[in-house]
Amino acid sequence: MCFIGNSQTVIDFETVNSGYTPSGTSGTGFTDVFNRTNADLPNTTSETGFYWAIEDTSLSNPSIDLDQIDVTGSADFTFSIDMVAHHYLDWDTSDELLITYSVDGGSYQNLMWVQSIPDGDISNSVAALDTDFDGDGECGNVLPALTTGTNAGCTVSSSDFQTFSTSAITLSGNSTLDIRLQFNGLTAGDEGIYLDNITITETSACTDAMDFSNVQFPTTSQTITVGDNFTVFAQTYEPGVTEAAGAGTGVEAWIGYNTTNNDPSVDAGWTWIPATFNVQVGNNDEFSAEIGSALPTGTYYYASRFRLNNCNFTYGGSGGDWNNDSVQLTVNPDVADFCNVDFPKSATITEGDSFNVYAQIYEPGITDAVGQGANVEAWIGYSAIDNDPRVDAGWIWVAATYDSDVGNNDQYTAEIGSLRTPGTYYYASRFRINGSDFTYGGILADNMGNFWDPVTYNSGILTVNAPPLADVVITEIMYNSTGTDDEWVEICNNSGSTQSLSLYTIEVNSSTVYTFSGGTTIADGTCITIGIGSNGDGNFNPGCNFTPDFGLNGSIDNSNNLPNSTQTITLFAADGTTAADAVTYNTGDGANGNGNSLHVIDASLDNSDTGTNWQEVTNGGSPGTNSLTSPCATTQVEFVNTTSTLAEDGLFIDICVEIVNPSGSTATTVEVALDGASTATNGTDYDDGAGTPAAISFPVTLTFPAGSSANQCVTIFISNDDAVVEPSETVILNLQNVSGGTTASIATNSTHTLTITDNDGAGSTDIMITQYYEGAGINKWVEVKNVSGAVIPANTYYIVILNNADADNPTAADPTAGGSPSANNNLLISTDMAVDEVRRYKHNSATVPAYATPGEVGYDGNPTFNFAAAASMFSGDDLVIISTTNDSSTWANRVDVIGNGTTWGNRRCFVRNTCVSTEPSTTFDLNDWVEFTDAEVENSLTGTNPYLGEHEEAVTTWNGASWSNGLPERSRFVALSGNYNVGVSGDLEVCSLMVDAGITVTIPAGSYIDIENDLRVDDTGIININHEGSLVMVNDAGVVTLNGTGMINVEKTTASFEQYDYTYWSSPIASTTFGTSLGTWRLDRTFRYVASNFEDLDDDEFDDNDDVWAHILSTDTMTPGVGYAVMGPTTGSFPRTENVTFSGAVNNGVITAPISLSADATDTEDDWNFVGNPYPSAISADDFVTLNTNISGTLYFWTHIDDVSISNPGPDLFNYSTDDYAMYNTVGGVGTGSTSGSTAPTGFIASGQGFFIEAITAGTVTFNNSLRSNTYSNDNFYRPANAETTTETTEERDRIWLNLTNPDGAFSQLLIGFLDDATLQKDRLYDGIRLNGSNYLSFYSNDATNNKYGIQGRPTFVETDIVPLGYDARILGDITISIDNIEGILNTADVDVYLKDLELNITHDLKQSDYTFTTTDGVFPNRFQLEFINNAILSVEDEVLDDNALAVYLNDNKEIEIKQRTRTIINSVTVYSMLGQQIGTITDMNQKISLRTQASGVYVVVIDTEKGQIKKKITR
Predict the structure, then answer these.
(1) In a 3-state reduction of DSSP, which class is residue 1150?
(2) pLDDT tens digit string along 1297-1312?
(3) Are 937 and 970 spatial neighbours (Cβ–Cβ below 8 Å)?
(4) Closest CA relative to residue 382, chosen from 405, 349, 407, 409
(5) pTM of the prediction?
(6) Distances in Å between the alpha carbon of 309 and those of 47, 151, 207, 556, 1293?
(7) DSSP single-letter state for residue 984
(8) Domain range annotation of the chain
(9) Rounded Cα gap, residues 1027 and 1050, in angstroms
(10) What is the CA radius of gyration of the chain?
(11) Confidence at residue 1332, expressed as pLDDT on a 0 to 100 scale
(12) pLDDT per residue as tens digits for the range 875-885
């Protein structure tokens, strides 16, 4: 739609939907259509562009609306339209075009109709105007048509468009005009009409117009470069309007341009840019507009246009009112000063090889700076024809990437060789600056290039040779699987080098069944599979499912391509005639529908016929491996039983191992190893039975012969049959190092425990202490259990407590001796103890829990036994033993003991750890016990070992619905034999955990599993740790074992990120690569931080050599404890989150990560190192910095809140803002900025989170399990905030968070904390240096050494404290200081928080309101002070001036007036511009400060009074 003057609106359909709205569209040509088109109309010569076509349309009664045409100020309008019918004799009575109009939203009225001319029937007549709107066309107003002729006396003689117009239609102060074109019928062949150039011409109702207009400057032809600014100035004059200063009332101005030098007042093609008032020139108003920067290359003509009071336009040229004197503007392309192909001039490669071409460009002011020049695009092009890349066809252009700086040139490179087929190619370069014209580069010789020309600097030459015949072998054929066939072929490469299969074909009896794509290769030592046929059931290859590397897969139904008869399979080279390999298979050789494949036995020998050197491979074959064993038929070995018991009576015992699915061709071996946890002595308590005796030489290797299923055993002889009463002893055997067989592995029963029991009367395995409980005061208990398997007779054992000196020297203790500190602290078990009976014994006056109290709710019915009333029992450094005597032999005859005389302290509770110790022991080992709090014991559940009166030793197993042997807790070995969802069935705290084969364990967000010792996941078992779920392990020596395909998946969900954002990762898995865990991420943008490379001698906070970030390969391993920066996926929609899964054995125990000092030894505050939480659970930040004394106490977390930006300073074109580092130390955390904000760190570092630390000395940082707890929240993996608070809520301390912000989202947060042990110097644990670099705003507190702190810990709060504050700014304008959060005494009514602006001498109460001030860019380290005033001691005479006490305004002479609402002495008034420039100052209030000569804008007025300062803004 274009506007001509103020009077015409033209809809010419050259632009889609410009000025019109169709109800719908269909079709694209000039038939079967309702749409805009430029299709050629036969027999028509007047149509050259787009028009609207309707013919035989599929739409029902479509329409076109011309909406909201502005007719303000118009007296009337006329309507015209160009029309031509499709056929002169094909309009039916139902075919019609009804054009109606509406003004100001009123009812529609008839404007112009097209109907058929009546001819006696209802079809096939001439289309004509219906000027009286009676439904019939009129012979005097026929429409032209693409065909001509006469009907009913009406002749159609023209085939060109004809213009039809209405008479003027009066308007009465209307403002909007709507016109509708309604098409009815026209749904059969040849029924149609074509429209163009709809014109609405208005007659203006007003006569106002400017008396004079011109183009003032420039008035001669001008030339610019594309992208340059170009401003045109024009003047206009109207008496009584423009003489006064400033823009005349009602005057509008435009500068217009056109590519055609025609009349701007009536001709089309002009684009009008609104102009703004520039200056008063005499009686003229001068306006200007910038028109050049958006213009593409070309020649333009410009003129001016003015309008007064929304009436008529006047137009100006170089000589005044326009008179064919538009001014010419030439926009030249922005082309490079130099470009080339730098090297190589020529090259020869083999098909599939990569080939890089390097080219350079130079443009002053763009490429001569360090790094990639802005707005440069580069390509390397190639063609199979040696022609001119500048103009000729056939060139393919590959985008090139920036490579390096070469002097003042930028060098780019692109790879163009790897996908080229054999032949000769010619290559050149192409560059473009600022989207302008291309320049092309050529080459004379290596490193000698220039602009491309056909003689000297022409194209480089690349020759691509065909690869040699592939040295590969057809090794396996599946021609008839079970059921409907899935058919496939395997090809292996044993040549010693990579082989090319580019465009090779596989043929079966001269019919091609598969063609490899160009560039396909097969690596040495590997095999590939090609799907030839499939039954389409979704599973490929019954018996051993897999997905072929090439060809068909299980989802495509296309079978019987390998016939079940004698056939020949041939692998042909790309020429289609040279055979690389061929095999003839025969159904008589096997694999005919029995689920087996045919596999070559020796690929180095003749493989041409499956009757020789071939055999069957069972269980679906061995696809993808050059093996005669199916991966789906594996060998497994395990112990027949996991436990056995034998008394020390001189007998032999066989510990046997069984085999499942032995290989028919390969023997299987496995080692039986002795576990170091065994308590029996090899060679003393047992031996090899040879009579020497001789210790058994572990490990013992057991061999299962090929094809044998017979058990293999280790024989043990119990050699020590003494007469000493002693505890049971164990021989623990483990299976290890299985080999041979068919991918042999160790099954579930991998451990066997032989228990050697005592046979000397009531032995040491009869009874044991199972719980030691010391609560508050006298609340002390001992729990014992009968573990003998028989009734223990009354009066057999004593419970004896050895106190004080007896505990220190128990061998000399006699609890019955006079003066013994242990007197009365013993008790005879005087009644029979039933099998597995558990008894609880307590201090005579101990508090009895409800479940041990008869008559109380929950009483369990079990008796409680008391020590004697005089017994003091234990007090934290005593021994509790069970003995067969109670005299001087008590210690010698002990059968169990807890304690070693070491002071434990009071209120300790220990429960026997059943996954470590299930029998009594005459020696104390703290590892045999699990500590519980007294609260856990007092609130324990029945079925758990902390429950006094219950103790279970055996494994408790989950079957999917219930537990087999009591509830899990930290003293129990727990097995999961059914699927377990922690979120449904409850968190788990266990001693050790085993996940059985095929079982899935799920740990949802907010849930945990806590393991004291070991974790084992058996074959096909899975633990899924969902995002924000936790797997916590306690013992640093705990072992994580994955058997077979057992797997642990740690799932993490990223923060919501934008395109090109980085996330900081650390792997919770012991061994994984970047490609495995982050395969969909931008692994070409993956980095580790090399602290020792950092050097910042120019003090810009960036690495001088740009080598501190080292690139990581996808095959590199993620080292636990190390942080990595990885760019997220960059395709798709943004912002978004990504789910990442780390799979494998999780990290546990002590993990160290190296840290280094920077290369600049003179700077002690740039030793940044990148580490990360290595565990699948959160760790405590406080504990981490306390543990590692060789680092500063502040941690820095990347929050990727703000987008990468060209406006951020840094070494690259696009840089990130260090505003995005949240900080944390033991004072608390500060968040990051932008409009979305980021939550402050909470003190817990989430699983998988990488973060920065600052090293004090080089060495390592240590992570261990003491940093972990199931109480730590695992949800602080950095993400956008919108959190309820910016601080942790677990501790209320004297702290204040301050924000520095601007209206556009710039943000910096500061935390001040007052702590008893903090100082005013730099404290490692309390003071965090603010990161500098690319911050828009940096807010900080200072100390005496000018350190800039983002977090500062200060000594205990006193009301006289003054905290120096400063800021750095890279932006201009208003910024605001506000309180984000406040705690402790600072949040009480007795303490105010004042901000003192030392520059403006303003003291502001931040508790009452935020403080806004105006800044320039720069560094302002001493601008503010934070002061705290105690209201309780504030003098009642002190006065603070109310902000509304004074009013400031400009009088008519643009002078500043101050009106007082109170009687206040004004000392001075000073005015500043928004850039901080002082405009004026006065001390005499009879004087005035004038802004008459100042530019329009906002100014700051600072009024200094006897009661303080007030700052006001005014607008000039």
Answers:
(1) coil
(2) 999 988 877 888 999 9
(3) no
(4) 349
(5) 0.49
(6) 39, 54, 9, 73, 67
(7) H
(8) 2-204, 212-332, 338-465, 473-617, 636-757, 786-953, 1057-1271, 1292-1438, 1446-1515
(9) 7
(10) 46
(11) 61
(12) 878 899 999 99
